[in-house]
Each structure stands twice: as structure tokens, then as C-alpha cells.
From TrEMBL:
InterPro entries xrefs: Gln_synth/guanido_kin_cat_dom, Glu_cys_ligase, Glut_cys_ligase
E.C. code: 6.3.2.2
Name recorded for this polypeptide: Glutamate--cysteine ligase
An MF annotation (GO) of this entry: metal ion binding
Domain named Glutamate--cysteine ligase: residues: 14-374
Family note: Belongs to the glutamate--cysteine ligase type 1 family. Type 1 subfamily.
Pathway(s): Sulfur metabolism; glutathione biosynthesis; glutathione from L-cysteine and L-glutamate: step 1/2
Record GO biological process: glutathione biosynthetic process
Coiled coil feature spans: none
Encoding gene (name): gshA
Keywords, comma-separated and alphabetical: ATP-binding, Glutathione biosynthesis, Ligase, Nucleotide-binding
Entry-linked Pfam families: Glu_cys_ligase (PF04262)
GO cellular component, one term: cytosol
Amino acid sequence: MTLSSAGHTTLARNLPLLRGILRGIEKESLRVDVQGALARTPHPPQLGAALTHEHITTDYSEALLELITGTHDSTESLLRELTRTHRYVAAQLGNELLWNQSMPALLPSEADIPIAWYGTSNTGMLKHVYRRGLAERYSKAMQCIAGVHYNFSVPEALWALLGMKGDDTQRRSRGYMALIRNFSRYSWLLMYLFGASPAVSRSFMRNASRHALETLDPDTLHLPYATSLRMSDLGYQNNKAQAELQLCYNDLETFLARMYTAVTTPWPAYEAIGTHRNGEWIQLNTNIIQIENEYYSSIRPKRTTGRCERPISALAERGVQYIEVRCLDIDPYSPIGISTQTAHFMDAFLLFCAAEDSALFPDNGFCVNSHSNFKTVVKEGRKPGLVLIDEGRSISLQDWGMQLVNRIAGYATLLDNALGETGYGDAIETQRKKLCDSALTPSARLLADLRDSGLSLHDFTLRQSQEHSAALKAQPLDPETQRQYARAARDSISQQAALEAGDTIDFDGYVARYNQALGIPRP
């Protein structure tokens, strides 16, 4: 059963436009050694320069690879590119592996987790010092958590058809902010369906004595009904400064105003740290967040930026260009961390969020129920009889989830019809089965596999990572594709060298100019 709406009816009358939907992926993975311990080696030169390579870079740690696709008009071409990049990387890593789990591998002491290095250019040093600041504020271990980011945009003409008002830029920004509001309402469903981090290695908790985790085996802690500890307060959500930062998705102007406040307002604990230690930079400034990307949200409005351009400035000047979904865990059962069915469902889900009515949030733009539902599902999503709150009324997760999937199914049908395939409908049926039987969810499967195998999370993930690496290496790239990747690596190294040679001001002056672009006083 599917339920149509005005937005669905409009799209059904304009099917060719759906072929213009674009999607991209940024997939993070830790490099580990043969024992599954965090790699302590530099970023491999055969992968190019992390600062300037378009498709292979690093995130927080020198060992946290980030593989970036281009934008694609189909999920098939998207995942083909991601697979090719994984095959190239796997072949270049020697005895190292890509860790196929969102929660970190065996980590060394805090001091020995290597922060990503981007060379000596001002641009590279800005990225490095920003990461030093993250270490001061959140710990290095937390920054080693990995995920899959899903980028999504619709053709510009769609926003006018869906009734957005204003000029092209205004319609686009209002449309994406409406999408984000619906995403905020319903993203708990993604955590139930795709959350794959219900457990952590005991070593990740370090010496924490106060936590609610239960012992699964001597080396593994878990919550019995959790879906994604990565997205719980054990991971990205555990920070007082960020917890008090409530951005508003009712309109872009208010969102940017609150983001501006966050990047320009000092936070006492960070002021106590300061920006320098022993004559070296340790954070870019002492504000609530150093730069816009420090805000840990499950979705972001995005706009491509130029070199040294601040995201907030780009959004203010040119509006929202696409959205970035940041809450997907790495799929431990896929060599590339995401399955075709997940990508199909993400398209249908995000199209549903874009086309359905999206009322403004009350309470100064912050939806308490949406936030609470999300937090509940990441920790207890598979708990029998779990109840969520939908606009003030109590409803079981299974009932609400099935209602949503039935509505999303209508958009899956539109995508199948527009693109001449059946993959979207197949993805819907798979998610329906998960709602009927929680044992089919990735989080439940992982816990069952740990119990059945008798392996710890670490040993199980190491085995999975080895098997995935072998599968990728068993399908080597053709010679021409191999040469293209090698050429891109060499070119990126040359581009980084050119940046380093082209700087005309010292780093202190560069940071001052970067901060003052938003009115941040020089430290």
C-alpha cells in the first residue's frame, strides 16, 4: 500500500525530471595493520596528497582515509566508482587493511594517534591545526569513528513545481531546508534500518568508569537493543558546547545567524586551553566551534566552496546547493561500506523528505520530539514494544516505521518508473521485512554473528576486513583505469607542492585573515 500526496502527484506528472537527481558518497575508513591496530604509517604516497586529491583524502587522523565519489545520476554508476576506488586503494595498501566498521579498531594511547598532515602550505596547516583543536576538545579516539556520508540534490526546476516561492536561489534554499526538517523528523528510521554499530571494543572506552554499556565478551561492550552507538552520546553527540548549540532549520537566514554565533562566540573551557602551547598552534580559536564543519549534525545544507572560502559565506551568498546526510554507519557486510539497496532507499527517502509537506518547527526552530526519537532509536531501536512520539502522540516504532515506508514506497515507484528499473521497489520490500523482524537489521545481525562466532568485535571485524580486502584485490583494475588513478595521485602531489611554493603570508597572518572574515578577533 502506498499513500500519495500533492508532492507525489506533482512528481508523477514530471517523471523525466527525476532522472536529474544527483548523488555522491564520502566514505571513511581507518587504515589498520595485520593485527587490526590503527596504522601508524604516513598517508601512502601512492594514494597522492590528501590535501589536493579530488577523490582520496584523509579526515581526522592520518590513518582515517576518506574516499570521495563524483556526482552521479544513478546509484549504479555511483557505486561502480566507489568500488573502483576501493579496489585501487586496497591494492596500494600492502599489508594494511581498510577497517570495515564505524567504531574504531585497536587504538594506541591518545598521544600516539596521528593527526592528519597536509603539508606546510597555509591551507594544509589550517586543516592540521583545526584537527589539533578537535583533539583538545573531543579526544582523538572519538575522532577516529568513521561513517558514510550521502550527498543528494534534485533538479532546480523541481522546487518551483513543489511550490517553493522566491527567485531560483530562494526556492532552492527553502526547498532543501524543508527537506532537512522532514529528515530531522524521520531520520530515526534510518538508524533502525541501517545502524550497524551496536557494540564497541572495550579499549575504545579507555578508562571510562561510568557508562551504561553491558559486557558481551571480555573485549566487547554493547547495548542489547542499540542500532548505532556511533550516533549516540558515546560518539559524536557527547559534547556540552555542541549540546547547547541548537541550529534552526526553519529558514536559511536563521540557520546561518546561529552558525555565525557559534563560530564567533568564545566558550570558557576553550578559552582556558588557549590557541597556543609551547609556541605552537593547538586550535584555530577559542569559540564554540572553530569552523562550521565542527558542528556534528546528522545532516547539513551544503554549497561547494572556493579555496579558503568559508562555508557560511558561500551559503549566504549563493544558497544551498545540496544536502549531506552524515548518520549512516559503515555496512560491515559490504566491501565498500554501503549496499546498493541502501543507496536506493536513501534516494527514495530523501525524495520523500523533499516532496512531502514540511511544517516549520516550533520552539525557536528546535524539534524536541525529533531529537528525542533519534536518541532513543540509536540506543534502544530494537527493543520490543518501543514507543516514539509523533507530533505529541505515542506510536510504536514498528507501526510508524511501516506507515513511513508505505509512503516512501510511492516515491520508490516513481524512481523505478523514471529510471526504468526495479531496484527501488526491491529496496522498499527489504526494509519492510526489517520492520517486521528486527533480527534482520544490520545491528541485530552483527550481534548475532558475534555470539555465533565466539569472536570479539575486534576479531570479527578484522576477519571481515581481511575478506573484503581479498575480494577487492581479486578484481584488479584494468591497466588504463590503474594509470588514471596513478596519474591523479602524482598530479595531486604536484598541486600540493605548488600551493606550498605560492604562499605569500605567514601562517599567523593567514589564520587572522581567515578568522576575521567572520569578525573573529585575532588571538
